[in-house]
Amino acid sequence: NAGVTQTPKFRVLKTGQSMTLLCAQDMNHEYMYWYRQDPGMGLRLIHYSVGEGTTAKGEVPDGYNVSRLKKQNFLLGLESAAPSQTSVYFCASIPGGSGLAKNIQYFGAGTRLSVL
Amino acid sequence: SQQGEEDPQALSIQEGENATMNCSYKTSINNLQWYRQNSGRGLVHLILIRSNEREKHSGRLRVTLDTSKKSSSLLITASRAADTASYFCATDGGYNKLIFGAGTRLAVHP
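The joint structure predicted for all components is written out below.
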């Protein structure tokens, strides 16, 4: 009954370092999303995927790359971390398809990233 | 760009009182959702209301939607300390995307 799992939960990086955040879902969902959440703000969409092998840019894509090689996994990469990327990152997924439930998002617990 | 904007930004009440949060949005919608976020956790879906619905209930939650005013409200009745969380409205942003507001931080004191 895992749902959406994010790893790692916490990470501290130095400016210029790279890292990959992993999101895994076991619900066979088609769509997956990466958000960042900053204090006093809602969630802002970084990138999303509408299916295996597809990715698309969201509202704030600069400085991030993503890949969806397997349906259950959605990776978020930071090639050269900057202090402005200090944030809490959330992954979410939705079933897709038809019906009202298709748009209900299921979230992971988040990854807290600090870039020094 | 945020579609939904919650009001108030923060709300502090006593246990047993009702809590009302409002959400305004800018463009037409197919549906509107409310989510809860406990401190340090991910968001959890609470309720979805369709554009042709005016009111919806789920337990102690009551959501209203006024499409003419482009606004929605979330009412939590008989609040409990466990209701302490941030609450977000989300509207459909096309292509199965959601646009979230900045949220209302609710504190319920015992």
